[in-house]
Amino acid sequence: MGRARPKTSKAKLLGASSATAAENKSEPTIPALLEKAQELIIQCDYELAERFSRRVLEREPHNFDARELLGVAQLEQGELEAAKATFQSLLPPSQTAPSTPPSSAHLYLAQLSDDDPHLALQHYQAAVDILTARLKGKDRATDSASLTDDESEMQRNVVRALIGMVEIWMDPSYDLCFDPTAEHTCENLLNMALQVDPGNAEALQALASVRLSQQRPDDAKACLEQAWTSWKDFDLDDSRLPPIPTRLALVKMFLELALYTPALLVLQGIMASDDQEVEAWYLEGWCFFLMAEEAREKEEPLDGLTWQELAKDARDCLETCHMLHVSQEHPDTPLLDHVKELIEKLEALGVHLSPPGEDGEDGEGWESVEGSDEDEDVEMS
């Protein structure tokens, strides 16, 4: 009697084959994993975004999109050295770099090179060169109405890179700001930015900063007015609205020029988006403090409010700022020191914190600003 054939059977093999197929079918595709990683970064879930990026890289070690997303996730989690290494792997002389290096890697590395301004400038310039080459030859490159979404994004990134270079040249913590060519270099960079994107609000705002450093307040005011007018009527969820840090920088220049009404309007929009923004509360308190000082010196109301009313609003804003600064463990110590100094000055003037239950932060103190016609232009004089 012959040996019995084991019952492995076709059925078992078919079953195994079907299970493998089902398993493969359930495995997410590379595009789906990348899309999920991007979505998680938008949601600020950087740890999970890193995991999805690594899943892609396990299957495709040279996937450049996954590597860039990994670098972003590392950067946002404070893993600066790891992020730097990831972005450098996308650039020559790395053997894993793509044939056409991504401009974004240079832009991220520029931000990560704050200890070496010359290296940061090189990365910004490399990004500008790559993006400009991609835009080159497009007749509509300066006609924003006919730009595709990709072209508009490239255009904005060129401008941001040029502004980043200006900020490095102007930064007093670097020796570059003392270079005899610094002023001329900044002028050229900003002229180039406005050629790439005429009327760009961030470029105009940077130009206003240069004009202030040149003691040309009227020219600075004209630049700020043009910049603010270009976006002040946008809805709060409009993607064209400048990021909050850019708007906060605008407020600082408004205050430097004693343009209190537009400063308060910009702050109102910022707080409508994020009422936990420490610097916004500080600037609003500082604005009311400056207004109170002016009203007190002139011995007459300002915007229909007495100096005592303005000072009370200042005190309430500054106290809120102090509370948020402490609860968030905010890193800006000089800001907190100034807040304490201003509170002490107000206290010495007999201006105390509003009692609990008395609403000192509902905007009532500047109804003449908030209650104005939405479409009416604010006079910047």
Automatic annotation (TrEMBL):
Domain of life (superkingdom): Eukaryota
Acidic residues composition-biased segments: 358-381
SUPFAM superfamilies from the UniProt entry: TPR-like (SSF48452)
Bias (Basic residues) ranges: 1-10
Region feature (Disordered): 1-26, 351-381
Pfam family, one: TPR_19
Name this polypeptide is given: Uncharacterized protein
Organism: Ceriporiopsis subvermispora (strain B)
